[in-house]
Amino acid sequence: MPRLSRPIRIALSACALALAGLWSHGAEAQTRIKDITQVEGIRDNVLVGYGLVVGLNGTGDDLDDSPFTRESLIGMLQRLGVNARTEDNSLETENIAAVMVTADLPPFARRGSRIDVSVSSLGTAESLLGGTLLVTPLLGADGEVYAVSQGPVNVNGFTVGGAAQEITKGVPTSGRIPNGAIIEREIDFQLGSLSTVHLQLRNPDLTTARRVARAINQFVGQSAARSLDPATVRIDVPENYGGDTVGLLTDVEQLPISPDQVAKVVIDESSGVIVMGANVRISTVAIAQGNLTIRVTETPQVAQPGPFAQQGRTAVVPRTEIEVDEESENRMAVLPEGVTLQQLVDGLNALGVGPRDMIAILHAIKASGALQAKIEVL
Predict the structure, then answer these.
(1) What is the role of the protein in this entry (predicted)?
(2) Per-residue pLDDT for 327 more than 50?
(3) In this predicted model, what pLDDT tens digit does every residue of 7-34 receive, in sequence order?
């Protein structure tokens, strides 16, 4: 029997998995393996460096308050053959600023290619607008130089002011240099020579990891994938791929699966934001929400004597109105066992519950043991 081509196998596998998903998981959303996993070893690396920005229009560091800027300037000039050291250290300039330069080195970046860098002021500079970053080596975590940065700094913010008022828009003490660094050292990672690869789940889950392994095994027609833990799926490159690891990963990442998730309620009490997962369930519980509200309104009135009265004077007469609202319109609601997220939200909205009160209610339901979900407070 002739061997099917990879595109045909991908299409057949996708159809089979889609039918299996409709049969076993109902209307659960299908997601590509590519969108929920990443290949172990394919990652960015952070770079950092210290440099000087010159050409500022009097908005740079005060050398008296920023000794590191002074010493960096003197050292740079000495390397260029200029002796800037004096007995009284009377070095005055406001057109230079010490900065930290950061960048992300992408995976498989080759020598000679360029990456973007971010520049942030380190001293007392007021703005980096119009400045130019001088040659700055960018170091990795191992202390080696992986890139060299230089170029004009693009600043989105600005500061304009006079003697009595000053307006600042954005952050003028930080900026970016597009394609501002040249890669000088590569990180050696031979993906194509690997006989075993590991997929890392972005949201670790035992069920999801097992579904990923099953989808891969069904696609390749053998037991090549195995879930090691909730976050890792190991794949042994099948022999029929002839050592083409990249080709295997290209085929695998397009396979659709239905990710599982833990029932969780995420609450941000500072902003009143509540996010509830679809698997949140509630046991039988009765909910009542209401507060005693007393409103006191003062409406003073002016009393005057009648026309042509022999006696009397104008006076302010107090008028006080008191309203007591016990929220008698609200009733206790009973939520039956196993209600869904939509039913929970509809029930709380029917009580007129706002986000702040809803947070308190969810905590109370969890304390009673009726909320079958994890509450995570940000």
Answers:
(1) Assembles around the rod to form the L-ring and probably protects the motor/basal body from shearing forces during rotation.
(2) yes
(3) 445 444 544 444 444 344 444 578 999 9
Interatomic CA distance for residues 154 and 152, integer angstroms: 7
Task: Specify which residues 141 forms β-bridges with.
Answer: none
Q: Residue 99 and residue 121: Cα distance in Å, rounded?
A: 4
pTM exceeds 0.85, yes or no: no
As given in the structure block, the two tokens for residue 31 are 């997601």
Q: State how far the Cα of 63 lies from the Cα of 91, in Å rounded to an integer.
A: 8
> Could you tell me if 315 and 303 are in contact, meaning their C-beta atoms sit under 8 angstroms apart?
yes
pLDDT value of residue 163: 58
* Residue boundaries of the structural domains of the chain: 6-42+190-257, 45-183, 265-294+327-377
What stretches of 325-354 show up as alpha helix (H) in DSSP?
341-350
Chain segment 106-164, per-residue pLDDT in tens: 999 999 999 999 999 998 998 899 899 999 999 999 999 999 999 999 998 766 666 55
- Contact between 193 and 215 under an 8 Å Cβ cutoff? The reply is no
| Closest to 31 (Cα-Cα) out of 42, 19, 21, 41 | 21
Residue pair 186/143 in contact (Cβ under 8 Å)? The answer is no
End-to-end CA distance of the chain: 58
With a CB cutoff of 8 Å and minimum separation 6, the contacts of 129 are: 56, 57, 59, 153, 155, 158, 172, 175
CA distance 200 to 234: 9
| Residues 53-90: tens digit of each pLDDT | 999 988 888 888 888 888 888 888 888 888 877 766 66
Torsion of CA 157, 160, 165, 171, to 10 degrees: 20
Helix 6-24 to helix 245-252 angle, to the nearest 10 degrees?
40
According to DSSP, the residues that pair with 282 across neighbouring strands are 339, 371
Topology of the domain covering 6-42+190-257: Gyrase A; domain 2 (3.30.1360)
- Residue 102, judged by CB atoms within 10 A of its CB (0-12, 13-18, 19+), counts as middle
Q: Which amino acid belongs to residue 49? A: G
Tokens of 256: 């659709």
The 10 Å Cβ neighbour count of residue 56 is 22
